[in-house]
Amino acid sequence: MSSREDEALARAAVTALTGQLALAPKPGLPDPRDLGARITHRDHRMLRWSAKALTPGLAAMAAVAWRTGEPTPGLRTELGAIGRCTEHSVRLAGGGHRGALWALGLLVAATALDPRAGARDVAATAKRIAAHTDKRAPRRPSRGSSVSAKYGAAGARGEARAGFPHVRRALDALAIARSAGATEEQARLDALLTVMSTLQDTELLHTAGPLGLRHVQAGARGVLAAGGTATEAGAAALAALDADLHARAWSPRGSAGLLAGALFLDSLPAPLSSRARAA
Protein backbone atom coordinates (compact mmCIF):
# COMPACT_ATOMS: atom_id res chain seq x y z
CA MET A 1 0.00 0.00 0.00
CA SER A 2 1.11 3.55 -0.70
CA SER A 3 0.65 6.63 1.45
CA ARG A 4 -2.20 7.57 -0.88
CA GLU A 5 -3.95 4.28 -0.10
CA ASP A 6 -3.37 4.75 3.64
CA GLU A 7 -5.02 8.15 3.42
CA ALA A 8 -7.89 6.75 1.36
CA LEU A 9 -8.64 4.21 4.09
CA ALA A 10 -8.51 6.94 6.72
CA ARG A 11 -10.81 9.20 4.74
CA ALA A 12 -13.26 6.33 4.24
CA ALA A 13 -13.34 5.77 7.99
CA VAL A 14 -13.91 9.46 8.75
CA THR A 15 -16.63 9.60 6.09
CA ALA A 16 -18.33 6.67 7.82
CA LEU A 17 -18.14 8.52 11.12
CA THR A 18 -19.55 11.76 9.73
CA GLY A 19 -22.23 9.73 7.96
CA GLN A 20 -23.26 8.32 11.32
CA LEU A 21 -23.30 11.84 12.77
CA ALA A 22 -25.58 13.07 9.97
CA LEU A 23 -28.37 10.59 10.76
CA ALA A 24 -31.54 11.86 12.45
CA PRO A 25 -33.36 11.23 14.63
CA LYS A 26 -30.81 9.24 16.64
CA PRO A 27 -32.28 8.39 20.07
CA GLY A 28 -30.20 10.04 22.80
CA LEU A 29 -27.36 10.86 20.41
CA PRO A 30 -26.13 14.11 18.82
CA ASP A 31 -27.60 14.76 15.40
CA PRO A 32 -28.15 17.77 13.10
CA ARG A 33 -31.27 18.84 15.03
CA ASP A 34 -29.16 19.59 18.13
CA LEU A 35 -26.73 22.14 16.77
CA GLY A 36 -26.53 24.02 20.03
CA ALA A 37 -26.06 20.89 22.15
CA ARG A 38 -28.97 21.89 24.35
CA ILE A 39 -29.82 18.27 25.13
CA THR A 40 -26.90 16.01 24.29
CA HIS A 41 -24.21 18.50 25.39
CA ARG A 42 -22.29 17.59 22.23
CA ASP A 43 -22.37 20.32 19.58
CA HIS A 44 -22.99 18.56 16.27
CA ARG A 45 -20.81 20.98 14.30
CA MET A 46 -17.96 20.50 16.76
CA LEU A 47 -18.25 16.73 16.46
CA ARG A 48 -18.09 16.93 12.66
CA TRP A 49 -15.02 19.14 12.90
CA SER A 50 -13.22 17.00 15.47
CA ALA A 51 -13.95 13.86 13.42
CA LYS A 52 -11.56 15.20 10.79
CA ALA A 53 -8.77 15.17 13.38
CA LEU A 54 -8.87 11.35 13.25
CA THR A 55 -7.61 11.27 9.66
CA PRO A 56 -3.82 11.47 10.25
CA GLY A 57 -3.91 8.91 13.05
CA LEU A 58 -6.03 6.45 11.07
CA ALA A 59 -3.72 6.83 8.08
CA ALA A 60 -0.75 6.12 10.35
CA MET A 61 -2.51 2.99 11.65
CA ALA A 62 -3.02 1.78 8.08
CA ALA A 63 0.63 2.45 7.27
CA VAL A 64 2.02 0.61 10.30
CA ALA A 65 -0.28 -2.35 9.64
CA TRP A 66 0.87 -2.60 6.03
CA ARG A 67 4.51 -2.35 7.13
CA THR A 68 4.08 -5.01 9.83
CA GLY A 69 2.12 -7.35 7.57
CA GLU A 70 0.67 -9.54 10.34
CA PRO A 71 -1.64 -9.03 13.37
CA THR A 72 1.27 -9.27 15.81
CA PRO A 73 1.66 -8.09 19.41
CA GLY A 74 4.01 -5.40 18.08
CA LEU A 75 1.33 -4.09 15.76
CA ARG A 76 -1.17 -3.94 18.64
CA THR A 77 1.31 -1.91 20.69
CA GLU A 78 2.01 0.52 17.85
CA LEU A 79 -1.70 0.98 17.17
CA GLY A 80 -2.24 1.79 20.84
CA ALA A 81 0.48 4.44 20.79
CA ILE A 82 -0.92 6.03 17.64
CA GLY A 83 -4.42 5.89 19.11
CA ARG A 84 -3.39 7.78 22.25
CA CYS A 85 -1.71 10.48 20.19
CA THR A 86 -4.83 10.72 18.02
CA GLU A 87 -7.06 11.04 21.09
CA HIS A 88 -4.96 14.03 22.15
CA SER A 89 -5.38 15.65 18.72
CA VAL A 90 -9.12 15.05 18.79
CA ARG A 91 -9.38 16.65 22.25
CA LEU A 92 -7.62 19.74 20.91
CA ALA A 93 -10.12 19.82 18.04
CA GLY A 94 -13.13 19.65 20.35
CA GLY A 95 -13.29 16.10 21.67
CA GLY A 96 -15.50 13.07 21.25
CA HIS A 97 -15.18 9.92 19.13
CA ARG A 98 -13.10 7.83 21.53
CA GLY A 99 -15.19 4.71 21.02
CA ALA A 100 -15.33 5.24 17.28
CA LEU A 101 -11.55 5.66 17.15
CA TRP A 102 -11.07 2.30 18.87
CA ALA A 103 -13.35 0.46 16.43
CA LEU A 104 -12.28 2.30 13.30
CA GLY A 105 -8.59 2.08 14.16
CA LEU A 106 -8.69 -1.70 14.46
CA LEU A 107 -10.82 -2.10 11.34
CA VAL A 108 -8.64 0.25 9.29
CA ALA A 109 -5.51 -1.64 10.37
CA ALA A 110 -7.15 -4.99 9.60
CA THR A 111 -8.19 -3.75 6.15
CA ALA A 112 -4.65 -2.54 5.44
CA LEU A 113 -3.32 -6.03 6.24
CA ASP A 114 -5.42 -7.42 3.38
CA PRO A 115 -7.28 -4.89 1.20
CA ARG A 116 -8.89 -7.77 -0.74
CA ALA A 117 -10.66 -9.16 2.34
CA GLY A 118 -14.41 -8.99 2.76
CA ALA A 119 -16.07 -7.26 5.69
CA ARG A 120 -16.31 -10.35 7.87
CA ASP A 121 -12.72 -11.33 7.18
CA VAL A 122 -11.64 -7.82 8.16
CA ALA A 123 -13.57 -8.17 11.42
CA ALA A 124 -11.87 -11.53 12.04
CA THR A 125 -8.44 -9.97 11.48
CA ALA A 126 -9.32 -7.12 13.82
CA LYS A 127 -10.18 -9.77 16.40
CA ARG A 128 -6.69 -11.24 16.04
CA ILE A 129 -5.11 -7.81 16.56
CA ALA A 130 -7.29 -7.03 19.60
CA ALA A 131 -6.43 -10.38 21.20
CA HIS A 132 -2.95 -9.05 21.98
CA THR A 133 -2.22 -6.91 25.02
CA ASP A 134 -0.99 -3.35 24.57
CA LYS A 135 1.97 -3.44 26.94
CA ARG A 136 2.43 0.33 26.79
CA ALA A 137 -1.15 1.18 27.69
CA PRO A 138 -1.66 3.30 30.83
CA ARG A 139 -2.09 1.22 33.98
CA ARG A 140 -5.04 3.24 35.25
CA PRO A 141 -8.44 1.75 34.30
CA SER A 142 -10.72 3.70 31.99
CA ARG A 143 -14.32 4.44 32.86
CA GLY A 144 -15.44 1.88 30.28
CA SER A 145 -13.23 -0.86 31.69
CA SER A 146 -14.36 -0.07 35.23
CA VAL A 147 -18.02 -0.28 34.20
CA SER A 148 -17.31 -3.52 32.31
CA ALA A 149 -15.73 -5.04 35.40
CA LYS A 150 -18.57 -3.88 37.65
CA TYR A 151 -21.42 -5.24 35.51
CA GLY A 152 -19.70 -8.04 33.60
CA ALA A 153 -20.25 -6.30 30.26
CA ALA A 154 -18.01 -7.03 27.30
CA GLY A 155 -17.22 -3.38 26.69
CA ALA A 156 -15.24 -2.03 23.74
CA ARG A 157 -12.35 -4.45 24.24
CA GLY A 158 -14.66 -7.43 24.50
CA GLU A 159 -16.50 -6.38 21.36
CA ALA A 160 -13.22 -6.24 19.42
CA ARG A 161 -11.92 -9.50 20.86
CA ALA A 162 -15.15 -11.19 19.76
CA GLY A 163 -14.65 -9.99 16.18
CA PHE A 164 -17.08 -7.05 16.36
CA PRO A 165 -20.33 -9.06 16.41
CA HIS A 166 -22.44 -5.90 16.57
CA VAL A 167 -20.68 -4.41 13.56
CA ARG A 168 -21.54 -7.61 11.69
CA ARG A 169 -25.16 -7.43 12.86
CA ALA A 170 -25.34 -3.83 11.66
CA LEU A 171 -24.06 -4.91 8.24
CA ASP A 172 -26.80 -7.55 8.08
CA ALA A 173 -29.40 -4.99 9.10
CA LEU A 174 -28.23 -2.60 6.38
CA ALA A 175 -28.58 -5.31 3.74
CA ILE A 176 -32.03 -6.40 4.93
CA ALA A 177 -33.42 -2.85 5.08
CA ARG A 178 -32.04 -1.92 1.67
CA SER A 179 -33.45 -5.06 0.07
CA ALA A 180 -36.84 -4.20 1.58
CA GLY A 181 -36.83 -0.80 -0.14
CA ALA A 182 -35.82 1.44 2.76
CA THR A 183 -33.98 4.68 2.03
CA GLU A 184 -30.30 4.78 2.91
CA GLU A 185 -30.99 6.87 6.01
CA GLN A 186 -33.73 4.47 7.14
CA ALA A 187 -31.43 1.49 6.58
CA ARG A 188 -28.69 3.12 8.65
CA LEU A 189 -31.11 3.98 11.45
CA ASP A 190 -32.36 0.37 11.47
CA ALA A 191 -28.74 -0.76 11.72
CA LEU A 192 -28.17 1.57 14.68
CA LEU A 193 -31.28 0.26 16.43
CA THR A 194 -30.15 -3.32 15.78
CA VAL A 195 -26.93 -2.57 17.64
CA MET A 196 -28.78 -0.75 20.44
CA SER A 197 -31.18 -3.67 20.90
CA THR A 198 -28.51 -6.04 22.23
CA LEU A 199 -25.29 -4.12 22.96
CA GLN A 200 -24.20 -3.92 26.60
CA ASP A 201 -23.34 -0.26 26.18
CA THR A 202 -20.98 0.76 29.00
CA GLU A 203 -21.93 4.43 28.60
CA LEU A 204 -25.56 3.54 29.32
CA LEU A 205 -24.56 1.27 32.18
CA HIS A 206 -22.59 4.15 33.70
CA THR A 207 -25.41 6.69 33.44
CA ALA A 208 -28.53 4.52 33.73
CA GLY A 209 -27.48 1.21 35.28
CA PRO A 210 -28.68 -2.25 34.16
CA LEU A 211 -32.37 -1.31 34.32
CA GLY A 212 -31.79 1.71 32.12
CA LEU A 213 -29.79 -0.36 29.65
CA ARG A 214 -32.60 -2.90 29.39
CA HIS A 215 -35.10 -0.05 28.92
CA VAL A 216 -33.12 1.28 25.96
CA GLN A 217 -32.65 -2.20 24.46
CA ALA A 218 -36.39 -2.84 24.72
CA GLY A 219 -37.16 0.50 23.09
CA ALA A 220 -34.87 -0.27 20.15
CA ARG A 221 -36.43 -3.71 19.75
CA GLY A 222 -39.84 -2.09 19.78
CA VAL A 223 -38.99 0.10 16.78
CA LEU A 224 -37.69 -2.89 14.84
CA ALA A 225 -40.69 -5.03 15.82
CA ALA A 226 -42.98 -2.29 14.51
CA GLY A 227 -41.43 -2.74 11.09
CA GLY A 228 -38.37 -0.53 11.31
CA THR A 229 -37.98 3.14 10.55
CA ALA A 230 -39.32 2.79 6.98
CA THR A 231 -42.84 2.06 8.30
CA GLU A 232 -45.27 4.52 9.82
CA ALA A 233 -45.51 2.54 13.05
CA GLY A 234 -41.74 2.15 13.27
CA ALA A 235 -41.15 5.85 12.66
CA ALA A 236 -43.64 6.70 15.42
CA ALA A 237 -41.92 4.29 17.80
CA LEU A 238 -38.54 5.84 16.92
CA ALA A 239 -39.85 9.33 17.65
CA ALA A 240 -41.15 8.16 21.02
CA LEU A 241 -37.85 6.49 21.91
CA ASP A 242 -35.93 9.56 20.82
CA ALA A 243 -38.02 11.84 23.03
CA ASP A 244 -37.74 9.42 25.95
CA LEU A 245 -33.94 9.12 25.84
CA HIS A 246 -33.39 12.83 25.39
CA ALA A 247 -35.67 13.54 28.34
CA ARG A 248 -33.70 11.09 30.48
CA ALA A 249 -30.31 12.30 29.12
CA TRP A 250 -29.33 8.71 28.30
CA SER A 251 -26.90 8.37 25.40
CA PRO A 252 -26.06 5.03 23.70
CA ARG A 253 -22.68 6.27 22.47
CA GLY A 254 -21.19 2.79 22.14
CA SER A 255 -23.80 1.89 19.54
CA ALA A 256 -22.98 4.98 17.49
CA GLY A 257 -19.28 4.09 17.33
CA LEU A 258 -20.02 0.54 16.19
CA LEU A 259 -22.39 1.81 13.51
CA ALA A 260 -19.53 3.95 12.20
CA GLY A 261 -17.43 0.79 12.02
CA ALA A 262 -20.14 -0.97 10.03
CA LEU A 263 -20.49 1.96 7.64
CA PHE A 264 -16.74 1.90 7.08
CA LEU A 265 -16.74 -1.79 6.16
CA ASP A 266 -19.83 -1.24 4.02
CA SER A 267 -18.16 1.45 1.93
CA LEU A 268 -14.50 0.60 1.51
CA PRO A 269 -13.02 2.65 -1.36
CA ALA A 270 -13.46 0.81 -4.66
CA PRO A 271 -10.06 1.99 -6.02
CA LEU A 272 -8.30 0.20 -3.15
CA SER A 273 -10.12 -3.06 -3.82
CA SER A 274 -9.58 -2.93 -7.57
CA ARG A 275 -5.88 -2.12 -7.23
CA ALA A 276 -5.46 -5.01 -4.81
CA ARG A 277 -7.17 -7.45 -7.19
CA ALA A 278 -5.03 -6.26 -10.07
CA ALA A 279 -1.77 -6.62 -8.10
UniProtKB/TrEMBL annotation:
**Keyword Chloroplast attributed:** no
What is one process in the GO biological process aspect for this record?
A: prosthetic group biosynthetic process
Q: Which PANTHER family match?
A: 2-(5''-TRIPHOSPHORIBOSYL)-3'-DEPHOSPHOCOENZYME-A SYNTHASE, TRIPHOSPHORIBOSYL-DEPHOSPHO-COA SYNTHASE
Q: What is its EC number?
A: 2.4.2.52
Source organism per UniProt: Streptomyces curacoi
The protein's matches in Pfam families, at most eight in alphabetical order, are given as: CitG (PF01874)
Q: Which reaction does it catalyse?
A: 3'-dephospho-CoA + ATP = 2'-(5''-triphospho-alpha-D-ribosyl)-3'-dephospho-CoA + adenine
Q: Where is this region: Disordered?
A: 129-152
Q: What is this protein called?
A: triphosphoribosyl-dephospho-CoA synthase
